[in-house]
């Protein structure tokens, strides 16, 4: 699709082949495209894909997918999940811990509100700079 500078939103743009696709962009400098949010859980030791989840973009789709995939990990033992700073929210970290999952999440120091109260990661787990 070629929108030629038009303001894009899910209310003004819809896929002609898949009306469930939503506008999303990779980062601040990129254009929005109609797409889905595809997520992969990878086993760390050998780099093998162990689960996938496809969701509509909604602002929390990546974290929602991580929770769904972590819920499907078999066995009763505690597991560890690593994630980047986009997963650093109090709600995500707390829910992972409730699920018997240890979240190794990079701390987002630039989060709006930017304080320790905005993060889900304990200051004792954050390296001093």
Account of the protein in words:
The protein is an alpha+beta fold and 129 residues long. The chain has one domain (22-119). 16% of the residues lie in helices and 22% in strands. The chain has 2 helices and 6 strands. It has helices at 61-71, 90-98, and strands at 22-24, 33-35, 37-42, 49-55, 79-83, 101-105. A two-stranded antiparallel sheet has the order 1-2. The protein has a two-stranded antiparallel ribbon with strand order 3-4. Strands 5-6 form a two-stranded parallel sheet. Strand 5 (79-83), helix 2 and strand 6 (101-105) form a beta-alpha-beta unit. The longest helix is centred in the middle third of the chain and has 11 residues, at 61-71. The protein is globular and about 50 Å long. The chain starts with 21 loop residues before the first strand and ends in a 24-residue tail after the last strand.
């Amino acid at each position: 699709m070629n929108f030629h500078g038009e303001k894009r939103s899910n209310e003004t743009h819809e896929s002609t082949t898949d009306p469930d696709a939503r506008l999303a962009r990779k980062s601040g400098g990129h254009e929005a495209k109609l797409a889905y949010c595809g997520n992969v859980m990878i086993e760390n030791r050998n780099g093998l894909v162990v689960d996938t989840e496809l969701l509509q973009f909604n602002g929390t789709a990546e974290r929602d997918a991580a929770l769904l995939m972590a819920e499907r990990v078999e066995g009763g033992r505690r597991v560890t999940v690593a994630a980047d700073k986009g997963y650093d929210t109090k709600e995500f970290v707390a829910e992972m811990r409730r699920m018997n999952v240890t979240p190794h999440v990079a701390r987002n120091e630039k989060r709006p509100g930017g304080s320790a109260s905005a993060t889900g990661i304990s200051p004792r787990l954050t390296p001093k700079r």
